[in-house]
Specification:
The complex is a heterodimer of chains A (788) and B (155). Chain A has 788 residues and is of the alpha+beta class. Chain A folds into 3 domains: 2-16 and 482-628, Aldehyde Oxidoreductase, domain 4 (2-Layer Sandwich); 31-136 and 198-251 and 256-289, Aldehyde Oxidoreductase, domain 3; 296-404 and 413-466 and 632-787, Aldehyde oxidase/xanthine dehydrogenase, molybdopterin binding domain (Aldehyde Oxidoreductase, domain 4, 2-Layer Sandwich), CATH 3.30.365.10. Chain A is 28% helix and 23% strand. Chain A contains 19 helices and 28 strands. In chain A, a hairpin with a 5-residue loop joins strand 13 (296-304) and strand 14 (310-322). Chain A is globular and about 90 Å long. The mean pLDDT of chain A is 97. Chain B is of the alpha+beta class. In chain B, a hairpin with a 2-residue loop joins strand 1 and strand 2 (12-18). Chain B contains 5 helices and 5 strands, in the order E-E-H-E-E-E-H-H-H-H. Chain B folds into 2 domains: 3-78, Ubiquitin-like (UB roll), CATH 3.10.20.30; 87-154, [2Fe-2S]-binding domain (DNA polymerase, domain 1, Orthogonal Bundle). Helix content of chain B is 33%, strand content 16%. Chain B is globular, with a radius of gyration of 15 Å. A 5-stranded mixed beta sheet of chain B has the order 2-1-5-3-4, sandwiched between helices. Chains A and B meet through helix 1 and helix 17 of A and helix 2, helix 3, helix 4 and helix 5 of B.
Chain lengths: 788, 155
């Protein structure tokens, strides 16, 4: 099935239903007898709940129930990763009740749940609920939270510190700095973002009175993880009594990984009322209840020798956790950030300290890239500053410090071991794509029309294919990060694949089918990909960290190999040949040196109609399952270059060119990979130019709707020139040689465009987002300097 | 007090008893069960709910169902004919102009209105027209390509 196999830009099979309005997202589902929940949320950043007045609401038409934290005494929404302090003690880990108990800690914290027959009735009754609060002092920024004597979000977290963690050899770093030719420094803010998947979160809890079984329909990237976390830690429901369905999901970008309060509320509530409860977020509710991303304040220093070789890097980061610890929050600034600070360079000594800080804001967790964009931004900005101060070309200082192809496997000083890569190849390709040599001419031409033109290079690496269970376990992860696949071959030879990976835009139904078509040699129409339902899929850890094809795809290959192995035994019996002489290729079992052949379909049928069958040695049926636990992370890398023009009179910026050269190893579907990179770049440029979550000093969310939070629109960007490297380095430790591509764009793009802006303006640094106002101020300061 | 509204949706006469404050999008999704029209925001910006009312693209979250009384409404479910994708839908598929699919119905409906008035839109015209449609997945690159290709196929 070469036309449907690996490496082909097969058109997506999921598109037909989405294009005709036949997708089934959670809010499209309605259960018989369904009620509707509206959540009354805290208007205060920090307050004591004195009294909840619900009598009036209770008496209103259609109201079925009103729940408060006093009613819903269940377990705490858990945090999935324990981080140790530098002194070896555990992080501070406060509880997180689904409905606030006694105190609220951020604007949007759930306080009261109103359930009614219709959504309108629930909305009206929710309006009638009043809550008396005693407003408490709050902290909404890293700066405010870490000031001496700052109000405490949690009494047990002194100085609002969740943990104080470090990685690397500080003594070696200090020694290298002592002998350095040059030290460059940067203070930067990695701006807080709100993920904004276009489908707002939604959840429906259902309870079967006959069986006592619960079902949760939810907008999740990982239904099995939700079943585990909610069942085991929050509601004490065994897996056998809890089904979690994540149907079509309208984008995730990390924000739909986590176990959220509303999922527990509707599931628990359905059990209380013995009726289904549906909750769908309004967008303004999403803004104040979806986990946010990024929000780092960092000071970093890079030591260089006289030739521009990097000697050592140190970084000190404050990372905002928000008011509660979301599912993966604690590992983002540590194991997904500090471990990436070697980048693509041979820097021999690195030390990073991260202090995680509680604030009275929405929890912060992984958002597309998660930790790796923060690391890449830090590194690629400080490297650019180093080039400037050393008077070296930004591309050449990078090249000079690249890990060479001969050095793999390469052990970094910050825990990771890169298996393979070719950083010169992606840099060379990107330089060629943008015509780097011609930049001086383009800059002069721009200057002639009064424009400032700048170019910015960014070389990224990321750790994907998350993750070897034993490794992450030793670092505090409370879960394994393998993946599961089940292959069910039906009697007629059609195949159902049950994968623990979850598709919410990535097109797995197409790419996973390509892997199956390639391995089994059967037409794609005979392949069904099933995901997103714990009642159908045996197990799964879900989709995040660009892990689906690298981990889920590898599990699928393992299960397919088992099918082929059993098929060979059956075929050998049918063809009266020795198993070792049976070959399987293009959907046919053949005996070497003969014209004997059995199709995959014939073997499948024999497995289910075993009249002529090696029944004493082999069970009937053809179904296999595999779990795959990766041996290492995968390391996609690449080079992005942006070229911008700035109008110094207005501060407006135009991206003239954006080129991307990526190394994702082996590629299953180039069209889909390119689309993933486009989307990632757009989110990265959104962070760099447009987006920023803003709280005022009292913890009010100022960017709480699309009126205030600047989402990228079509007219903000040019077309992107995205290409795959001509010298790919396939991953060495998974059977497909794949590395993952979902996050690269969001990781590589921000420093590329910010370096271009700094280059155009001749400034050392500018924090994101680079709004026209910021650019205008910088452009005019630049002119003032030039005049001096 | 409930009121009755009647209109033509995707060529079929429909009516329903609704509260006067019911938005057109609620009528379409909840009363008619046509869930291809989506709601992605509460400030009339995302464009996931775009439908055609009397041949013009409208954000169905910005008008009341009662305002569409007697109108001819086209939703995404009415675009493909006889089980065959419309050339614009086909262009989105062909050019990978969608990922999660949530904004897609609004994008297609909006694109159809653009092409109705501008048979050969330039890249910049397409990008400007999409001001009222937000996509978080594609970076717009392939949507722009798809609309240009769709326009060509419709010519």
């Amino acid at each position: 099935m070469a036309d449907m196999g690996i490496g082909v830009s097969v058109k997506r099979r999921e598109d037909a239903r989405f294009l005709t309005g036949n997708g089934t997202y959670t809010d499209d589902i309605n259960r018989h007898g369904q009620t509707h929940a509206i959540i009354v949320r805290s208007p205060h950043a920090h307050a004591r709940i004195k009294k909840i007045n619900q009598a009036k609401a209770k008496a209103m038409p259609g109201v079925v129930a009103i729940f408060t934290g006093e009613d819903m005494k269940v377990g705490s929404l858990p945090c999935g990763w324990l981080i140790k302090n530098q002194d070896g003690s555990n992080m501070v880990e406060p509880g997180h009740p689904p409905i606030a108990q006694g105190k609220v800690r951020h604007v949007g914290d759930p306080v009261v749940v109103v359930v009614a027959e219709t959504r309108q009735q629930a909305l009206e009754a929710a309006e009638a609920v009043t809550v008396d609060y005693e407003v408490l002092p709050s902290v909404s920024s890293l700066k405010a939270a870490t000031k001496a004597g700052a109000p405490l979000v949690w009494d047990e977290a002194k100085g609002n510190i969740c943990y104080d963690w470090a990685l690397g050899d500080k003594a070696a770093v200090d020694a290298a700095f002592a002998g350095a030719h040059k030290i460059v420094k940067i203070d930067l803010v990695n701006n807080r973002l709100i993920p904004n998947a276009m489908e707002p979160r939604a959840a429906i809890g259902d309870f079967d009175k006959a069986t006592g079984d619960y079902t949760l329909y939810t907008t999740s990237q990982n239904p099995h993880v939700i079943r585990l976390l909610m069942g085991a830690f929050v509601l004490s429901i065994p897996e056998s009594k809890l089904r979690v369905v994540a149907p079509d999901v309208g984008g995730g970008f990390g924000s739909k990984i986590y176990h959220y309060a509303e999922e527990a509320i509707v599931t628990w509530g359905a059990g209380q009322l013995k009726r289904p409860i549906k909750w769908t977020a309004e967008r303004s509710e999403s803004f104040m209840s979806d986990a946010h991303g990024r929000d780092h304040v960092t000071h970093a220093e890079l030591a260089l020798d006289k030739d521009g070789k990097f000697l050592a890097l140190k970084a000190e980061t404050l990372a905002n956790m928000g008011a509660y610890l979301s599912t993966f929050a604690t590992c983002v600034p540590t194991y997904l950030h500090a471990t990436l600070l070697a980048g693509v360079y041979t820097t021999p000594a690195i030390w990073c300290n991260v202090k995680a800080v509680f604030t009275n804001t929405v929890p912060v967790d992984a958002y597309r890239g998660a930790g790796r964009p923060e690391a890449t931004f830090l590194l690629e900005r400080i490297v650019d500053i180093a080039a400037r101060e050393m008077k070296m070309d930004p591309a050449e200082i990078r090249r000079k410090n690249f890990i060479q192809t001969s050095q793999f496997p390469y052990q970094t000083p910050v825990a990771l071991q890169y298996d393979t890569g070719n950083y010169d190849a992606t840099l060379d390709m990107a330089l060629k794509m943008i015509d780097y040599k011609g930049f001086a001419g383009r800059k002069a031409a721009a200057a002639a029309k009064g424009k400032l033109r700048g170019i910015g290079v960014s070389c990224y690496i990321e750790a994907c294919g998350i993750a070897p269970s034993a490794v992450v376990g030793s670092l505090g992860a409370r879960a394994g990060l393998y993946e599961c696949a089940n292959v069910r071959v039906h009697p007629t030879g059609s195949v159902s694949i049950f994968t623990g990976s979850h598709s919410h835009g990535q097109g797995h139904e197409t790419t996973f089918a390509q892997v199956v078509a390639e391995k089994l040699g059967i037409p794609s129409e005979q392949i069904e990909i099933v995901h997103g339902d714990t009642a159908k899929v045996p197990f799964g850890m879900g989709t995040y960290g660009s892990r689906s094809i690298a981990v889920g795809g590898a599990a699928l290959v393992k299960a397919l190999d088992k099918i082929i192995l059993k098929g060979r035994k059956i075929a050998a019996h049918l063809m009266e040949a020795s198993e070792k002489d049976v070959e399987f290729k293009d959907g046919k079992f053949t005996v070497a040196g003969t014209d004997k052949a059995k199709t995959f379909g014939e073997v499948a049928l024999t497995a289910y109609v075993p009249h002529n069958y090696p029944i004493t040695e082999l069970e009937p049926g053809l179904e296999e399952q595999a779990f795959y636990d990766p041996l290492n992370f995968t390391y996609p890398s690449g080079c992005y270059i942006a070229e911008v023009e700035i109008d110094k009179d207005t501060g407006t910026l135009e991206i003239m060119r954006f080129v991307a050269s990526d190394d994702f190893g082996k590629i299953i579907n180039p069209m889909i990979v390119e689309g993933q990179v486009h989307g990632g770049i757009a989110q990265g440029l959104g962070q760099a130019l447009l987006e920023s979550c803003v709280y005022d000093k009292d913890g009010q969310l100022l960017t709480g709707s699309y009126n205030d939070y600047c989402m990228p629109r079509a007219d903000d960007f040019p077309n992107f020139d995205v290409q795959h490297t001509d010298k790919p380095t396939p991953c060495t430790h998974n059977p497909l040689g794949v590395k993952g591509c979902g996050e690269a764009g969001a990781i590589g793009a921000p420093p590329a465009v910010m370096n271009a802006i700094c280059n155009a303006l001749g400034v050392v640094h500018m924090d994101m987002p680079a709004t026209p106002e910021k650019i205008w101020r910088a452009a005019n300061a630049h002119m003032a300097r030039a005049a001096e | 007090m409930p009121t009755t509204v009647s209109m033509t949706v995707n060529g079929k006469k429909v009516s329903g008893s609704i509260e006067p404050r019911t938005l057109l999008v609620q009528f379409i999704r909840e009363t008619l069960g046509l869930t291809g029209t989506h709601v992605g925001c509460d400030t009339s910006q995302c464009g996931s709910c775009v439908v055609h009312v009397d041949g013009k693209s409208v954000k169905s979250c910005t008008i009341l169902a009662a305002q569409a009384e007697g109108s001819d409404v086209l939703t995404i479910e009415g675009v493909a004919k006889d089980g065959k994708l419309h050339p614009m839908q086909e262009a989105f598929r062909e050019n990978h102009g969608l990922q999660c699919g949530f904004c897609t119905p609004g994008m297609v409906m909006s694109a159809l209105d653009l092409v109705k008035n501008n048979k050969n839109p330039s890249e910049q015209q397409i990008r400007d027209w999409l001001e009222g449609n937000i996509c978080r997945c594609t970076g717009y690159h392939n949507i722009v390509k798809a609309i240009a290709a769709g326009a060509k196929a419709m010519a």
